[in-house]
């Protein structure tokens, strides 16, 4: 039986491409990737706000693409197109890091023009984009497809984007990306609506680490995004003492930044922490 070619139905028209590119031309003159947390103050807050979807991304990337034989990048973004996580084969991961494709980068139309993510956001559907139609030159190496992830109430929670430098069919790319997005959507709907308060989650998880009571206190406040001064005031110790504690805590938990600490503590449920996701987090400076 002949499989229907979905490239037409998933593609963007010339008018749609022009509209996306016009938005970028008005708002950007650099034609490069930019970081944008919008209403959020830090990368830590961005990751904290999206721990549920990130956890499922990590789970299903291992299920669907762990043993993949084709070159690929898989991106996870929030509803605004802000990048949350990147996975892929070794060569594509290295290339994406070199180009600055990492957590915190905004892939909305005002920042990157025509792209499958900006198209999916704008037109509220799955979008396929051949590499030559990318607005940014640095992204013209990948054919790509983006699919929507929905939450419990049917709201858009984010986007899955599968990118490849090979000439795989649109049908195949759509099948893989769609399966991941649908599976994550399904699991989000199954999750309990009543969640454990954040501070309680942190306190429970920190008991698993070999930390003193004081170290657990400082770690909790650090993860909650308190700065050195505020922690010192709460615990009646000097800011320098807080800095020394943070350094020791990082060594004990085996992390190098606040963002990677947040990920390790809040996603500590025996899911393998994606190595590139951790690297992207290490690139953020407190």
Which labels suit this protein?
single chain, about 290 residues, alpha+beta, Beta-Lactamase, Arc Repressor Mutant, subunit A, 2 domains, disordered N terminus
- Count of distinct strands: 5
Question: Shape from CA axes?
Answer: elongated
Helix amount: 40-55%
Mean pLDDT: 81
- Class based on secondary structure composition and strand pairing: alpha+beta
Distance between the termini: 56 Å
**Number of H- or I-type helical stretches:** 14
Classified by CATH, the class of the largest domain is Alpha Beta
Look up the CATH topology of the largest domain: Beta-Lactamase
What is the CATH architecture descriptor of the largest domain? 2-Layer Sandwich
Largest sheet: 5 strands, antiparallel
Give the SSE order as H and E letters: HHHHEEHHHEEEHHHHHHH
Number of domains: 2
How are strands sequenced across the largest beta sheet?
2-1-5-4-3
User: Roughly how many Å is the radius of gyration?
Assistant: 20 Å
Low-confidence stretches: 1-5, 269-286
Give me the CATH superfamily of the largest domain.
Answer: GAF domain
**Beta-strand fraction estimate:** 5-15%
């Amino acid at each position: 039986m002949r499989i229907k070619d979905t490239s037409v139905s998933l593609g963007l028209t010339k008018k749609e491409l022009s509209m996306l590119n016009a938005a970028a031309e008005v708002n950007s003159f650099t034609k490069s990737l930019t970081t944008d947390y919008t209403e959020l103050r830090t990368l830590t807050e961005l990751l904290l706000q999206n721990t549920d979807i990130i956890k499922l991304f990590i789970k299903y990337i291992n299920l669907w693409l762990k043993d993949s034989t084709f070159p690929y990048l898989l991106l996870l973004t929030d509803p605004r197109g802000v990048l949350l996580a990147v996975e892929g084969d070794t060569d594509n991961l290295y290339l994406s890091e070199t180009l600055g494709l990492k957590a915190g980068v905004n892939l909305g139309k005002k920042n990157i023009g025509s792209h499958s993510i900006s198209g999916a956001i704008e037109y509220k559907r799955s979008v396929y984009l051949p590499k030559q139609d990318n607005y940014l030159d640095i992204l013209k190496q990948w054919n790509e497809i983006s699919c929507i992830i929905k939450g419990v109430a049917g709201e858009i929670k984010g986007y899955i984007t599968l990118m490849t430098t090979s000439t795989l069919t649109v049908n195949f790319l759509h099948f893989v990306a769609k399966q991941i997005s649908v599976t994550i959507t399904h699991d989000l709907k199954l999750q309990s609506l009543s969640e454990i308060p954040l501070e309680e989650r942190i306190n429970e998880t920190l008991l698993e680490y070999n930390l003193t009571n004081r170290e657990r206190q400082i770690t909790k406040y650090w993860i909650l995004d308190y700065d050195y001064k505020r922690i010192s005031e709460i615990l009646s110790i000097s800011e320098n003492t807080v800095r020394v504690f943070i350094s020791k805590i990082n060594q004990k938990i085996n992390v190098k930044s606040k963002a990677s600490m947040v990920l390790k503590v809040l996603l500590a449920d025996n899911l393998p922490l994606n190595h590139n996701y951790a690297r992207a987090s290490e690139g953020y400076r407190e």
